[in-house]
């Protein structure tokens, strides 16, 4: 039976300052989509409100617009998927093997959606994989489990660092410091010494990538967990060492 991956994407088109556009960082979706497609997995796009997904303008320019993202832009069927995303309520958690939270600064504004948190908790507690790349981990910061603990508490994880925010020139635009908030929630946050280099971290069924450069590596790690790699075995890649 094929695996089912649900990609979480944003509906937000700008920062609090509406003169600064943002949206989905396209390659963070396309790199993972390609890896999962190679395995024959079923894939679904979900956003907090459903419907259209704006694209981060900087992700559509050199050097960020790579062949994977360009291929998506040139394919009408793929672009249609970004106009017709489902809502969290449209998804039966029992059918989901892995959630993959994509990034772009936009997610800092709408990935706190309570329906997304409910879906994430349901997938996790059913033994599924929860993954994020770059700012996607903002969707995990407030997810709590049945015992009231944060999903990321006590678990190794990564995501876009504050240093990278500063180097990207948006530290004064973002609504909060995601790295610091992850640590406050008990996440064992880690990052590369060299910014904007690939890093993917696996802790049981939690798989996280640091930045856009980490998307492909993060997807590969998700596949390893789902296929019963060293990070976890059993139904939906459930790890023995952590529930």
UniProtKB/TrEMBL annotation:
CDD domains reported for this sequence: GATase1_Hsp31_like
Matching InterPro entries: Class_I_gatase-like, DJ-1/PfpI, Prot/Nucl_acid_deglycase
SUPFAM superfamilies tied to this protein: Class I glutamine amidotransferase-like
GO terms under biological process: methylglyoxal catabolic process to D-lactate via S-lactoyl-glutathione
UniProt-recorded Gene Ontology molecular function terms: glyoxalase III activity
GO cellular component: cytoplasm
Family: Belongs to the peptidase C56 family. HSP31-like subfamily.
Recorded catalytic activity of this chain's protein: methylglyoxal + H2O = (R)-lactate + H(+)
Record flagged with keyword Lyase: yes
Classification of source organism: Eukaryota, Fungi, Dikarya, Basidiomycota, Agaricomycotina
Gene3D superfamilies according to UniProt: 3.40.50.880
Keyword annotations: Lyase, Stress response
Record-annotated DJ-1/PfpI domain positions: 27-224
Its EC number(s): 4.2.1.130
Residues annotated as signal peptide: none
Protein name per its UniProtKB record: D-lactate dehydratase
Keyword Zinc attributed: no
């Amino acid at each position: 039976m094929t695996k089912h991956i649900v990609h979480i994407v944003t509906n937000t088109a700008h920062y609090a300052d509406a003169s600064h556009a943002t949206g989905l960082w396209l390659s963070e979706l396309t790199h993972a989509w390609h890896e999962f497609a190679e395995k024959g997995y079923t894939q679904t796009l979900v956003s907090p409100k459903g419907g259209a997904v704006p694209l981060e303008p900087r992700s559509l320019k050199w050097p960020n617009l790579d062949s994977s993202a360009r291929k998506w832009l040139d394919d009408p069927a793929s672009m249609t998927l970004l106009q017709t995303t489902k809502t969290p309520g449209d998804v039966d958690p029992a059918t989901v093997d892995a959630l993959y939270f994509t990034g772009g600064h936009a997610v800092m504004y709408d990935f706190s959606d309570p329906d997304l948190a409910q879906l994430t908790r349901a997938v996790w507690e059913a033994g599924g994989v929860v993954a994020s790349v770059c700012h996607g981990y903002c969707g995990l910061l407030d997810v709590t489990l049945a015992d009231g603990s944060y999903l990321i508490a006590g678990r190794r994880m990564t995501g876009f660092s504050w240093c990278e925010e500063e180097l990207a020139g948006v530290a004064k635009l973002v609504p909060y410091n995601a790295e610091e908030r992850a640590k406050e929630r008990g996440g064992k946050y880690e990052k590369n010494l060299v910014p904007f280099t690939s890093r993917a971290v696996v802790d049981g069924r939690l798989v996280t990538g640091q930045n856009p450069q980490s998307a492909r590596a993060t997807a590969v790690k998700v596949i390893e967990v789902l296929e019963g790699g060293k990070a976890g075995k059993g139904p939906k890649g459930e790890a023995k060492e952590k529930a």
